[in-house]
Write a structure and sequence with these properties.
Strand order of the largest sheet: 2-1-3-4-5-11
Distance between the termini: 49 Å
Number of strands: 12
Structural class: alpha/beta
Number of domains: 2
Number of helices: 13
Helix content: 40-55%
Strand content: 15-25%
CATH class of the largest domain: Alpha Beta
Length: 311
């Protein structure tokens, strides 16, 4: 069944790409053609793509240049190479890869086309410390120590309490985040248990189990969870267990997170520098944003969590 689904998704993707060929290929009248490979649809990735397009278009228009975007949502990590291969065959001017699997697919497919990533947590770990010369971008990394301490302080967590971390085992960035917060919590004597899954169909069961076993739930910047995080939110609310996410969203009682639209904008500004000949990809360091604290006051009230007066 999974193989059949993968075949159908690939066919649908190829048909969708082919339908755009006349507007996105060599016949484009725009000064630049940019291929965007977004791993999947969910709010954070959508906002990053929107910010990227807005910022790049604005920067190029200010110089009298135009850009055409070929935007594709892969839907699955295994389909990212299919999208990227179409971009390389068209020899687009730049590839924007939204999320780690998309970035890896792009980096593996070309060494000549500039590649910018966004919504990627750790570039060094992704490329084992050797980021390709044609790759740079923006990172959605957040200070894990501050996130862990925020949960400890707002939830009055003490030694012996258990925090559950829900993430998809197929996402390498999520494992990095899990290991970071695990070390921080355990340093305070707080137990940490991983609740992992590989298929979205498993998310309901592990969320229910986590809510039953833990005092709080932490969700890293995991694309697969974020795309279906209402499942986690529903399971947690039934047990009145607070959820803290690394990326924000409606299910968390509070977050220390970045603005993904602004993250995308920074990536768009980098793209403009490259396309306008103002900088080489190798000249641009990976950028991060300063996160902000946000409380969901209604949810905090339902859970009996005190919100600081200045928030």
């Amino acid at each position: 069944m999974k193989k059949l689904l993968a075949i159908l998704l690939t066919l649908a993707l190829c048909l969708g790409i082919c339908s755009l060929a006349t507007s996105c290929g060599d016949n484009s009248k725009a000064d630049f053609v940019v291929g965007i490979c977004q791993l999947m649809k969910h709010d954070s990735l959508d906002q990053a793509t929107e910010g990227f397009m807005d910022a790049l278009k604005e920067a190029l228009e200010a110089e009298g240049k135009t850009v055409e975007f070929d935007t594709q949502v892969a839907g699955d990590a295994n389909l990212c190479p299919t999208v990227i291969n179409v971009f390389t065959s068209k020899n687009v001017d730049l590839i924007m890869a939204n999320a780690t699997p998309a970035l890896l697919a792009a980096a593996n497919a070309t060494t000549s086309i500039p590649v910018l990533g966004t919504s990627v947590t750790d570039y060094d770990s992704t490329f084992s410390g050797k980021i390709p010369a044609n790759v740079s971008g923006t990172s959605d990394a957040v200070p894990f120590a501050e996130q862990a301490q925020m949960m400890i302080d707002t939830l009055n967590l003490v030694s012996g309490d258990q925090v559950g971390v829900i993430y998809c085992s197929n996402e390498s960035n999520s494992l990095i985040q899990y290991e970071a917060v695990k070390k921080l919590f355990e340093g305070k004597g707080i137990k940490v248990k991983a609740y992992t899954f590989s298929e979205t169909t498993e998310l309901q069961a592990i969320s229910t189990t986590a809510a039953a076993e833990c005092k709080a739930i932490y969700v890293p910047s995991d694309n697969t969870v974020a795309a279906s995080d209402s499942i986690v939110g529903t399971a947690a609310s039934q047990k009145k267990v607070p959820v803290f996410t690394s990326y924000g969203g409606t299910i968390c009682y509070a977050s220390l997170a970045i603005d993904y639209y602004e993250l995308g904008k920074e990536t768009g500004k980098m793209a403009a520098q490259i396309l306008l000949g103002q900088a080489e990809v190798s000249d641009l360091e990976v950028k991060t944003l300063t996160p902000t604290v946000v409380y969901n006051k209604d949810l905090c009230s339902q859970l009996g969590i005190s919100v600081p007066e200045n928030e």
